Structures are given as structure tokens and as C-alpha cells.
Amino acid sequence: MITIHLRYEIDADRLEDFREYGRRWIALVERFGGTHHGYFLPSEGDSDEAFALFTFESLAAYERYREDAAVDPECLEAYRFAQETRCIRRYERRFLSPLFSAESSDTEATTGR
């Protein structure tokens, strides 16, 4: 399993546009087989930083999603929307391996730790 963590630097004056962008991608990621864990928008503190998390069963599944999204009309429209509204200034992508509490119990049972 692989979780993708996105950190966005957004235009705080375009927050509603970014919110619309996020709504679109939640549905798109799920349509392509991922599990979207949501967008996390500024509330207090930095007004120009937002985050998103979504998971695919493997890095290969994520790569397939990226290839398919590159030619999908709805995905291309979502990209275009972000470019036209300039709601995103830049973003960073990280790949993470999640650890869930059930896994830590399994590890403790088999390793004695």
C-alpha cells in the first residue's frame, strides 16, 4: 500500500477555487481505484498551505492511475481549471507507507515486541 501526501502552496484569495479543484480530484482518484482521505484546507495559521492524502494498493496501481489520468477528459479539465484559476502556486508530492494499529498488533504477536 502507498499513500501520497501532497502539500500545496495555494493563493489564499482563491480558496474557493482550490476547494472546487479538491472536490473534483476526490471523485477522480476514487474512480481510478484509489482511496482519497480528503483535502485539508487552511483554518488557522498559514493561510496559503493545504494538504491532500490518498492511497493506492501499490506503487504500480498509482503509476497506472497517473498514466490514465494524463489522458482522461475529466482529469485534464481539472488540471485546466487549476491553471486558469491559478489557485495553486506550487505543490510537493511525497510517497508514504502507512502503518495501521492492526499491523502493529500483528507485528507484536509474531515478533514478541
Automatic annotation (TrEMBL):
It comes from the Bacteria. This is NIPSNAP family protein. It comes from Labedella phragmitis. The lineage of its organism: Bacteria, Bacillati, Actinomycetota, Actinomycetes, Micrococcales. Pfam families: NIPSNAP. InterPro entries: Dimeric_a/b-barrel, NIPSNAP. Residues 7-99 form the NIPSNAP domain. Signal peptide: none annotated.
